[in-house]
């Protein structure tokens, strides 16, 4: 029986369901962290592994699932992702101790990795080049919605339904998403190539150990035995991975993609953009706390960033379809850099509006950068490599997130110690240290603007990439 063909916009709605689940779940779980320490009678360090495990597994497996998507079909992997995410969420709600919670978050991350690696591939495969930016913009808008409503939803669920509800609420959404994707997303046969297990394992080991080193090295001590082992494991695994990929007939990652200028510089730009973005989202709540804002007001202030992205991302996508990524992404990165430098001008007397205006400007810059950049990267990849291209882009995004938090927090804490040692007042030391971290993130954005500018301009007019 032949499958009915649905409108590409209907197909996009099925992708949006999967795209919004991860951001909501992630932000809801972050809100619940203090609750977990009380419920399971444990400490913050142990509870942090609830998020860290998820991030490590998601980041390290996306390339594997991207390759499997090219081989087995994007729809099939996407549905497996929805199913895995939903089942693991149901089991998470039954957790009896913190260790069960951490282990099941790893399984939930497997489902999230499938969803994240397939979403852009499905969109790129069904939308023509002159509409791809708009579609990716709407998908980006759904992610912004998830990030915006997650904290509020998490607070309400924790207050009225208890911590288990933050997990079992995923189950009906996942089931609906699975059924809807089964009905409307078209099948694609994939490519008849063999899977590369050694490349997959070595890449997983490389990225997992690298992210572990970056995120935990400051806690362990950069020269500690644990940190050195993680770094050496990462370097050795990368060498093995490159060696394996150059020998096998069907490698997990097609290195010829890196010869495509727009693909390479677009991914470098993504890495830099998310390094800057996560420096902002990680450090700003500490600034707000220092300035004396209540938790409720801090939540409102932080929401200004994703809400502006929600409005601007679709408009940015429409512009991307007409003008391409080179100019738009460069302008977006420069606006983001400007927002960082303006954040560095804040004082102890800065108003709520002054901070929100800067975060809103940052949201505008990110929205103008991300949608055209994503569209250009995906448009530059061959049709039979959309899964790997989508996964590589998502991997750069996640690595940038981890690096942003690590670099931002390292600069802030180290500079804070310096100024405290110089006998600065606690207020002055804090403000100068956080301003230097913002300036560093602004420099990341300036470099991002440069890498966006030197890419080939991918024309997205009249169906041309």
Write up what this structure looks like:
- The protein has 465 residues and is mainly alpha-helical.
- It folds into 3 domains: 1-191, MFS general substrate transporter like domains (Growth Hormone, Chain: A), CATH 1.20.1250; 196-251; 253-465, MFS general substrate transporter like domains (Growth Hormone, Chain: A, Up-down Bundle), CATH 1.20.1250.20.
- Helix content is 81%, strand content 0%.
- It contains 15 helices and no strands.
- α3 (74-92) runs antiparallel to α4, α10 (261-290) runs antiparallel to α11 (295-323) and α10 packs antiparallel against α13 (352-380).
- The relative contact order is 0.14.
Task: Give the secondary structure arrangement, pairings included.
Blueprint: H1 8-39, H2 44-72, H3 74-92, H4 98-126, H5 129-160, H6 165-168, H7 170-184, H8 197-220, H9 225-245, H10 261-290, H11 295-323, H12 325-343, H13 352-380, H14 386-421, H15 426-453
Domain Major facilitator superfamily (MFS) profile: 11-459
Keywords: Cell membrane, Membrane, Transmembrane, Transmembrane helix, Transport
Subcellular location: Cell membrane
- The count of strands amounts to 0
CATH architecture of the largest domain: Up-down Bundle
The 3D shape can be described as: globular
Counting copies of identical and different chains, the oligomeric state is single chain
How is the main sheet built?
Answer: none
Helix content: over 70%
Summarize this structure briefly.
With 465 residues, this protein is mainly alpha-helical. Helices cover 81% and strands 0% of the residues.
